[in-house]
Amino acid sequence: MNTPSGPAAAAPAPTPTPAPPVVRPVGSRGLLVELATAEQTEALHAELLRRRADGTLPPVREIVPGARTVLLDEFATSGAARRLAAQLPGWQVPPLTGNSAEAVEIPVRYDGPDLADVAALWGVAPHEVARRHAATEFRVAFCGFAPGFGYLTGLAERYHVPRRATPRTKVPAGAVGLAGGYTGVYPRSSPGGWQLIGTAPETVLWDTDRTPAALLAPGTRVRFVPLDAPGGAFGCTPAGAPADTTADPGLGRDGSRSAQERS
Question: Cβ distance 47 to 94 under 8 Å?
Answer without folding.
Answer: yes
